[in-house]
Design goal:
Helix content is 31%, strand content 28%. The protein has 141 residues and is of the alpha+beta class. It has one domain: Histidine kinase-like ATPase, C-terminal domain (Heat Shock Protein 90). The chain has a 5-stranded antiparallel beta sheet with strand order 1-2-3-5-4. Helix 1 packs antiparallel against helix 2 and helix 2 packs antiparallel against helix 3. The longest helix is centred in the middle third of the chain and has 22 residues. The protein is globular, with a radius of gyration of 14 Å. The two termini are 14 Å apart.
Length: 141
Amino acid sequence: MSESRSKRVLQLRFAARAAELKGVREAVREAVKGCGCSAKSSGDIVLATDEACQNIIRHAYGGESDDVIEFEIEHRGDVLVFSLVDHAPAIDPSQVKPRDLDDIRPGGLGTHFIRRVMDEVEFLNPPSGRGNLLRMVRRID
């Protein structure tokens, strides 16, 4: 990953509610397009980040709440770095895996889609020491 220049292009803090996600999707689309992503890549990135936010709401917080999601996009040379922080109980990253694509039923494909769209996906310790930090990296194309 190129570390040459780093510029924060988006920083959001919002309640863990589905109604908040429309504005998040719009802000992400504008930010990544402004960094040079194609229309198709921008759409894929918007869907992947939306899935990540929905997973935080559903699984980390156990449903909609006034608890906060912190979301940031950094432009670092030829990549975008997406960071999502929640303040829910820490998860076991080994338990976050895509469902088998042959298992046809509603839900459960978000992590598969996120991993297909992003070049890197990892859970790290958040700066505050509590909650969860999802870091995703996508090369600009």
